[in-house]
Amino acid sequence: VIVEPIQSEGGDNHASPAFFRGLRELTAKHDVLFIVDEVQTGIGATGKFWAHEHWDLPTPPDMVTFSKKAQTAGYYYGNPALRPNKPYRQFNTWMGDPARAILFRGIIEEVKRLNLVEHTAKTGDYLYAGLEKLAAKYPGQFNNLRGKGQGTFIAFDSPQRDEFLKKAKTVGINIGGSGASAVRLRPMLIFDQGHADILLEALEKIVKM
After folding, report:
1. Dist. CA 40–CA 10, nearest whole Å
2. pLDDT tens digits, residue range 68-115?
3. Could you tell me the CATH number of the domain that includes residue 172?
4. Cys bridge to 51: 41, 56, 58, 93, which one at CB 3.0-4.6 A?
5. CA 2 to chain centre
6. pLDDT tens for each residue of 141-195
7. ∠ CA 100-86-95 to the nearest 5 degrees?
8. Is 198 helix (H, G, I), strand (E, B) or coil?
């Protein structure tokens, strides 16, 4: 079983920690590998270094994949029985070579030095609270707001999503869509409360257009 903590390309769909704990219990019971795809959610974006840390799993995933913020592609094993018995059994242009491992180590050190995971968690809470206020002020414009407590991995549904994204560019905001109606936020780890204020002001301008 392969799962994303947040279904990033299918509409930014979220599930509860209880769901993932239940899924982990089922896979363990039936001796099925439980693989967590953290390509998009990993490296601090959800206010934890790995998004699956939010779940409080009874046993760790058998395997976790990662990429993007890691500037490499790869996976690590929670189940030691899965480890290859020889080096370079998994290798391509973007993964497996020592240079990429050194680069990723440098990224981890910088994330720790600047305390970016905790920073993202706090910024996400601030941004989510601002979005809740906008959703209350403009009913029907920020539907199904989701991502509370998930750092800056936040999304909402717009009744005219594609038009919303076009208008966003006219006020200097580049935001992506996902699925049929989702608007998803994916700021960098250095995104702070000052940036959040700029974004919230721009979002209000968009719905007033």
Report:
1. 13
2. 999 888 888 888 888 877 766 656 666 667 788 899 999 999 999 999
3. 3.90.1150.10
4. 41
5. 16
6. 999 999 999 999 999 999 999 999 999 999 999 999 999 999 999 999 999 999 9
7. 20
8. helix
Residues 109 and 188 in one domain: no
74-77 β-sheet, strand order? 2-3, 35-37, 63-66, 74-77
Does one domain contain both 88 and 150?
A: no
Q: Whole domain around residue 40: which residue ranges?
A: 2-114
Which residue has tokens 């403009």?
A: 138
Residues 70, 124 within the same domain: no
* CB of 165 closer than 8 Å to CB of 183: yes
Provide the sign of the torsion angle of the four alpha carbons 102, 2, 177, 133, taken in this order: negative
CATH number of the CATH domain containing 64: 3.40.640.10
- Reported pTM: 0.91
Residues 81 and 182 in one domain: no
Cα–Cα distance list, 3 to 51, 61, 106 (Å): 12, 10, 28
CA geometry: angle 3, 84, 79, nearest 5 deg: 45
In whole angstroms, what is the distance from residue 47 CA to residue 118 CA?
6
